[in-house]
Every structure is written in C-alpha cells, then in structure tokens.
Amino acid sequence: MDSLKNGVQNPAVIDLVAHDPSSDEVVLGMYEERAWDGSEERLFELQEKLNTYLSFAIDGEMNEAYPQYRGKQIRVQLNCFFSPDSATFAFLDQVKEALPEGVTFAVCIPDPSQPSGECGTGSCGCKES
Questions:
Q1: Which of 2, 22, 75, 99 has the greatest number of CB atoms lying within 10 Å of its CB?
Q2: Contact (CB, 8 A) for 60 and 112
C-alpha cells in the first residue's frame, strides 16, 4: 500500500480536519473515490479508517494537534464520488448507532448539478447525525 495515499484505502491518514462555522462542528473528513462494491475488503478498509478517526477524536490526539477545537462537537464525514451500496449503508447505520456522545456521522456525495460539485441535499445524508 502506498503510504502517501489518503482516502478509505489508507487508514493511517486523517484526510481532512476542518471547522464548519455554520454548525460549529469539527469535521473529520475522509474520501472514497472508488465505486462501492460491498466487498468484505472494502468494508474492512472503511472500518479501519473509522477506527483511526474515532481514536484521533476521542483519545486526545485531535486536542493536541488542534487545541482551538477542544470541546466542539465532531462530525466524521465520508465524502464519496459514488453512492454507497446497500451493504455499506447497512454497515454505516450500525456505525451511527454506536458513536459516542459528541460525535456524529454523515455521508456526502457531490452533486454534479451544484456549483463546484457541492454536496446535494436530501438523499445524500450530508450533515445527517
């Protein structure tokens, strides 16, 4: 595995840390450019990536690296080019139920009809807790 790559395929990398001023949340963003295939391998990669993000958020690494975000709500956001398949959505539903207090999860799929590929509204689930 190329250690310089980011995205779901590299669980060792936090792809994005940002502040969303509209919700006052810290966004921990991860990316998936590949089409979802529902395979055990892809779900395992996603699980490993999520574990890295939750560890980063909960175990104090984020507060050390970004002290200005201490005490803020956290949104883990999966940004993907293709809508997840049913197996991946089922897995993500389980993830949402198991998140600790103060952490939410969202899936964001760019809407090609929006300017600069912004996330669409409605079915994409973006900013959904």
A1: 75
A2: no
